[in-house]
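Severity: low
Component: inverse-folding endpoint
Summary: output formatting inconsistent between runs
Steps to reproduce: submit the following structure tokens with default settings.
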């Protein structure tokens, strides 16, 4: 027997937190009856419905995608634009991205149908390190880099301390390549951090996510995570290490 919200999350319908909201709103039925109690436990023979749609139990799957630029980080798009899920036509499970990368940002993105796993990785207290490489306009001073390291003030609050280092500079073009490591997930955070120190981003790529990197993948390619990698991510999200 498992908690109802956990079963809904594992089925890929929603994160566990969202599943709890659905239960509280009376949108979940078990064996034809509306259930509002979060502690309700269900078994494999119970019939679960969300908004009158049966919940089919799916085995959890975990993927890593090298997201190209010009792709939406969503399961679908009402404007008909290409989404990250379009790179998985062979996957029958209802997968969705964990967090997002901007339309113009490339790099490592995780997708799953495991709502609990996704919710754990995005938890604001224990988010794992994410490493970005940005090509920026202008050459930042040491003090500007220290500002990134200490945290910069954005309209939705100050960012947490980060790791930042200049990888290379091009004096003739007045550009620089900077590596930035953060563990938060604010909307367009990396671009806004560089804007805050006066250096707009020209190109941005997420190189690493926790223990994972893009080695062996080209833009648009994906692979399934190993059981060890999934376990590593769970551990990091719970301990911050």
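Observed output (run 2 of 3):
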């Amino acid at each position: 027997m498992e908690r109802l919200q956990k079963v809904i999350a594992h089925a890929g319908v929603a994160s566990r937190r969202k599943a709890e909201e659905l239960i509280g709103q009376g949108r979940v039925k078990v064996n034809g009856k509306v259930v509002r109690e979060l502690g309700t436990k269900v078994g494999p023979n119970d019939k679960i419905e969300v908004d009158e749609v049966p919940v089919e139990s799916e085995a959890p799957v975990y993927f890593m995608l090298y997201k190209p630029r010009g792709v939406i980080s969503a399961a679908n798009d009402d404007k008909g634009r290409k989404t990250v899920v379009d790179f998985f036509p062979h996957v029958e499970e209802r997968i969705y991205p964990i967090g997002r990368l901007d339309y113009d940002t490339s790099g490592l993105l995780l997708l799953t149908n495991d709502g609990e796993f996704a919710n754990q990785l995005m938890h604001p207290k224990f988010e794992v390190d994410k490493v970005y490489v940005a090509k920026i306009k202008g050459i930042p001073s040491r003090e500007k880099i220290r500002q990134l390291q200490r945290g910069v003030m954005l309209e939705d609050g100050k960012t947490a301390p980060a790791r930042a280092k200049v990888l290379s500079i091009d004096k003739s073009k007045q550009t620089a390549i900077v590596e930035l490591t953060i563990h938060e997930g604010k909307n367009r955070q990396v671009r806004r951090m560089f804007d805050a120190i006066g250096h707009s981003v020209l190109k941005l790529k997420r190189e690493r996510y926790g223990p994972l990197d893009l080695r062996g993948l080209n833009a648009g390619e994906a692979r399934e995570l190993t059981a060890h990698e999934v376990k590593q991510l769970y551990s990091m999200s719970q301990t911050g290490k």
